User: What shape does this take?
Amino acid sequence: MKTDKNFKPNPLLGQHFISDNSVLNILSRTVEKDSTVIEIGAGTGRLTEVLSQNAKKVIATEIDKRFEKPLEELAKKHNNVEVLFGDALSGILDGVIKKESGKNVWIVSNLPYHITEPFINKIVRFPKIKMILMVGKKFGIQSQLKNPEDPNYSELSFVCNAFFNISKIAEVTKEAFWPVPGTDSIILKFSPKAQISVNQKLILSQKYGGMIKNVLMKVFDKNITKNEARRKVRAIGLPDEILNKSFSQLNNNEVKVLAKFLDSMEPLLSS
Assistant: This one.
């Protein structure tokens, strides 16, 4: 693509293509041989082809129809490659994950920086999905933070650590892309946490507008009455301005307060 004078990357889609073969190999060798890999943003298909040599099946998704010809040619060349066109944030991913349910599913992607956070908020609703993601350096740092006292801790930190164990695979300089982005990147492995936590329930409840106090009441309401659970929630010390909101309504300072509370209350909440 770099030598094609007629091709112009679409800035609205955050297109930055991997030009370093060693980075492609790092991304591909992390997946397991029996896996079904869903690739988000296949582009020219360079990563798709490398993935097809390691995974049992590759489902390459792409929003930009300009790549239809090279991707369809790739699918003809490799019988374990399937190509789907559409927006991963607008429904296509839901159908693919549902179809592949019960298999060893991985998501691998050089994610456009601007969709990273909404993508994470979407994927947490699908348990057992493992991911290898190349993300911007700022996101990579924030996603791994566990201490609410850290000045960089954010809602993103809370969400990522509620659902995943995150490990860094490699750092990638911005010169490994064309066109060169404004920041370096990090390749991270996201392994889903097996045990359902209160943190997860708070995040997932926002889909239904569930207030934090109601989610906590359900946690306490095991062998006691609702009134007793309500009294327990009042007694734990969280401010009303947090208790009476859903997780999605919290500002960053309120997320930090909630995270510190949950850390201190973990033995009680998980009992």
